[in-house]
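Quick note —
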Amino acid sequence: MSNVTNALKIKEAFPALPNKKVLEMHNAAFGQHINRGKKVQFTTKGPSRKQAIIPVHNELAEGIMGDASTHVFQINALLKNVKLLIRSEFIHPCSSGITIITNNVPNPSDLSIIGNYFKSVKGINSNDIPSPRLPQSKSYLKIMGLPYL
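Predicted structure written out below.
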């Protein structure tokens, strides 16, 4: 029998039952689950480990971002020369400096190559560029609301 026929038989057996309850009975009897909507997520995904963070001040970050595509190309050329599988995808500013997004998690030698590149860029003082680092946290907790009196 079709689903419609089964639902009509339930409605004939229980004429005073609201349509919503008939549908719930039909789904319970014939193994179909009721769609209750999407479950609310209370945590959010944290920063990816596939990035290198270089903590610099805002003026230096703006100067680097002015020529970001060239920096990505040059970093990839250096990494390719060393025959590493990691590649830089793009650079973007963050609250603590700049972030270099990569295709894999960079290891310490990858981070040193990236750091040495930025220290050798013309017009940038090498003392202003600290060593790149990985994000320190893997996840965050998102607080949905706090009760108050």
